[in-house]
Write a structure and sequence with these properties.
The protein is mainly alpha-helical. The protein has 8 helices and 3 strands. The chain has helices at about 1-15, 15-20, 65-95, 105-125, 130-145, 150-155, 160-170, 185-195, and strands at about 25-30, 40, 45. A hairpin with a 2-residue loop joins β2 (about 40) and β3 (about 45). The longest helix has about 35 residues, at about 65-95. The chain is flat, with a radius of gyration of 24 Å.
Amino acid sequence: MIRKYCFILFFGLLFGAGLNAQKNIRIIAETPEGHQRAIVDGQDTIAVVSLREVYVFPTYKSKKEQQQYTKLVRDVKRALPYAKMIYDTLIETYEYIETLPNEKEQQAHLKRMEKELFKEYKPELKKLTFSQGKLLIKLVDRECNQSAYNLAKAYLGSFRAGFWNLFAGMFGASLKSEYDPKGKDAMTERVVLLVENGLI
């Protein structure tokens, strides 16, 4: 929706001088179903089309780099849905516990949720490779704007968050890992954008 308005604004600026000089120009804001927005200028009707974003990235420098990229695509496609599910679950859980009358009931609900989530997703998460597990931790930070450790601490308390971080550390991972889309995770961000836009 925002992109449509930006396009209209851009179009208006592009032809601003000519449009301001004429009084018979109108913008069709409300359109019948199946029709596009348009600008009517006298006898001319100019369609306002919302274009899809285009991403341009550099090509691979070597065969090894291409193989690494292919592996990263596979890992992102495997881990990203879980990161998004975690974000949705956190929002839903937060909104629900806000309706509970006291902390005792809130903690009981969180323990129940933790147990149910483990039961449902543990078999699936166990199938993740080591690199996919580490990537998931970073993608959780991307989706939730907080590290997995901070989320665990907020919902489960410091002790249990520390336990899970220690457990992750046994496998060379850290729940405190942060996502750096403009630095070391730039290639991951590239893949995530392409996956989210259905381009790969």
